[in-house]
Each structure stands twice: as structure tokens, then as C-alpha cells.
Design a protein that fits this description.
The chain has helices at 21-29, 31-38, 130-148; strands at residues 6-17, 49-50, 57-64, 67-79, 83-92, 95-109, 112-124. By secondary structure, the protein is of the alpha+beta class. The chain has one domain (6-148): START domain (Alpha-D-Glucose-1,6-Bisphosphate, Chain A, domain 4, 2-Layer Sandwich), CATH 3.30.530.20. It has a 7-stranded antiparallel beta sheet, with helices on one face. Strand 3 (57-64) and strand 4 form a beta hairpin. The relative contact order is 0.25.
């Protein structure tokens, strides 16, 4: 039997983008724009769900190496161009690896935007940890920034 454990962790990622708050918000809220930096939802995958609204769900799965990951989100609060709050669980090869609460704050900063992502996670059974999640989030926020240049 697998030894069960919970490792709690939190982190904050802040970025400044040379784009308006409305454009940054659209990168999260529009599936066509989110696909450019997040890689999902895939337009041709019937399993992918993208319901960007309070109470809505986002679901996608994808392979990284030999492992199959799922990302299953519930949007808890959305204020256009200001904040997004969601909870999500991730699985790897069918095993739940984490459950998290994430907040995204979007604020005007000069002619651009300052965005702050804060995540509080419960990382399960040694299958994931806060360091890996923070590295992944940093990579995604860099990809979001690159997508805003298009």
C-alpha cells in the first residue's frame, strides 16, 4: 500500500506585462488565447472543457513524457479585468497528486499590467511538491507573457 501524506505549500508569482488588463484577462478567459500559452483547451479534443464563468469547469489532460496528467478546475470568483479565483485538482496516471486554491490579481501598472498569482496547495503522497508547482507556474506565466507579444 502507498504511504499517504500531505505536504502543504504556498507561493506567489508576480509578472509585469506590456499589455492592458483587458488583454491579460482575455488571455485567461478566451479559449483561443489561453491555448496559445497554456496549450489547452484543445479545440479538437472532446474531453476538454472550458466554461469560464463562476461555477464553471475547466478540464484537460495531456502527456508529459510517459505520464498522463489531468487538470480539473472549478472557477469560484471572477471579476473581469481584476481577479480570477479557482480551485483545482491534478492527477498523474489516475492518482490525485494535488488540490489547490489559486488567485490571480490583475492590476493596471502604467500602460501595462501587473499580475500576481498566489497558490495554496495540498500536495499528496509525495507525487508532487510546492517547488515543482512553482516552477511550472513560473514557466506558464512566462509563456503567457510571450503570447501577449503576438
Amino acid at each position: 500500500m502507498t504511504e499517504r501524506s500531505i505536504a502543504h505549500g504556498s507561493f506567489t508569482v508576480t509578472r509585469s506585462y506590456p499589455a492592458s488588463p483587458s488583454r491579460v484577462f482575455k488571455a485567461w478567459s478566451n479559449p483561443e488565447f489561453k491555448r496559445k500559452w497554456f496549450g489547452a483547451p484543445k479545440a479538437d479534443d472532446p474531453k476538454d472543457v472550458f466554461e469560464f464563468r463562476v461555477g464553471g469547469r475547466e478540464y484537460n489532460e495531456g502527456k508529459m513524457g510517459a505520464d498522463l496528467y489531468t487538470f480539473d478546475v472549478r472557477y469560484q470568483d471572477i471579476i473581469p479585468e481584476q481577479r480570477i479565483i479557482y480551485t483545482y485538482e491534478m492527477t498523474m496516471n489516475g492518482d490525485r497528486i494535488s488540490i489547490s486554491l489559486a488567485t490571480v490579481e490583475i492590476e493596471a501598472e502604467g500602460t501595462g499590467t501587473r499580475m500576481t498569482v498566489v497558490e495554496h496547495g495540498a500536495f499528496l503522497d509525495g507525487l508532487d511538491n510546492v517547488r515543482q508547482r512553482e516552477e511550472g507556474t513560473n514557466a506558464l506565466m512566462d509563456a503567457l507573457g510571450a503570447s501577449l507579444k503576438d
